[in-house]
Amino acid sequence: MPRLNDLDEARLSPDQRRIFDAIRSGPRGVVEGPLRVWLTSPGLADTAQALGAFCRYGTSLPPRLSELAILVTGAFWASGFEWAVHAPIALKAGLSDAVVEAIRIGATPEFTQEDEAIIYAFASELHRTRKVQPATYARAIATFGEQTVVELVGILGYYTLISMTINAFEVPLPAGAPDPFPTQETN
Questions:
Q1: What is the pLDDT averaged over residues 66-92?
Q2: The pTM is what?
Q3: In degrees to the nearest 10, what's the CA dihedral of 112, 109, 79, 147?
Q4: DSSP alpha helices (H): ranges in the chain?
Q5: CB 161 within 8 A of CB 55
Q6: Distance of CA 94 to the CA centre of its chain
Q7: pLDDT tens for residues 159-184?
Q8: 17-58 residue pLDDT tens
Q9: Which of 36, 173, 170 is nearest to 186 (CA)?
Q10: Average pLDDT score, the chain
Q11: Cα-only R_g, the chain
């Protein structure tokens, strides 16, 4: 059960309305889930949604790899709403069903593409150990370059904020979506 009442769109403050309209008219096209929670604090919502637009649509990572990073983060946090929204996007972007399912259940996927294996290793290590081993870091830099690795960390951090918001405020799954983590506790 959500911990905050859903925003009444007819009663938004001028700041909330401006940010709401900016999100809805942007590439997302919808104001849902954690974005609605953030509108409780217009300053946070404005800043976070701008960062999110960059992390989702503006980095140098192709969607297949950014969605992989997002799924690793969503699974780490057992963030149902995040998973329900991004798993279909990841599949459409080119991740295999087997990779997506392995991440969902907490198994290490068998990758056929080296770039996916590197993103997975980097993201998983950073989440699990709060560090990235020198060999993993070197592989990521050699494959993607410094700018992209910095952007990857930005994606992981932003989607951690998203997942924490979803979990802390018990943001419900999208209508009709099954719970992807019915027996998992958050890490």
A1: 97
A2: 0.92
A3: -50
A4: 14-25, 34-38, 42-57, 63-76, 80-93, 97-105, 114-129, 134-144, 146-168
A5: no
A6: 17
A7: 999 999 999 999 999 999 999 999 76
A8: 999 999 888 888 888 889 999 999 999 999 998 999 899 999
A9: 170
A10: 94
A11: 17
Q: How far apart are the C-alpha atoms of 59 and 109, rounded to whole Å?
A: 24
**Burial class of residue 30 (count of CB atoms within 10 Å of its CB; 0-12, 13-18, 19+):** exposed
The DSSP code sequence of 72-85 is: HHHHHTT-HHHHHH
Are 20 and 31 in contact by the 8 Å Cβ rule? The answer is yes
* Residue 80, token pair as written in the block: 């149902």
Neighbour-count burial for 157-178, b at 16+ CB within 10 Å, e otherwise: ebbbbbbebbbebebebeeeee
* Range 87-109 average pLDDT: 98
- Comparing CA positions, the residue from 112, 126, 144, 150 lying closest to residue 72 is 126
Residue the block writes with tokens 């932003």: 158
Gap between the Cα atoms of 30 and 15, Å rounded:
17
Query: Which tokens hold the place of 61?
Result: 């990572």
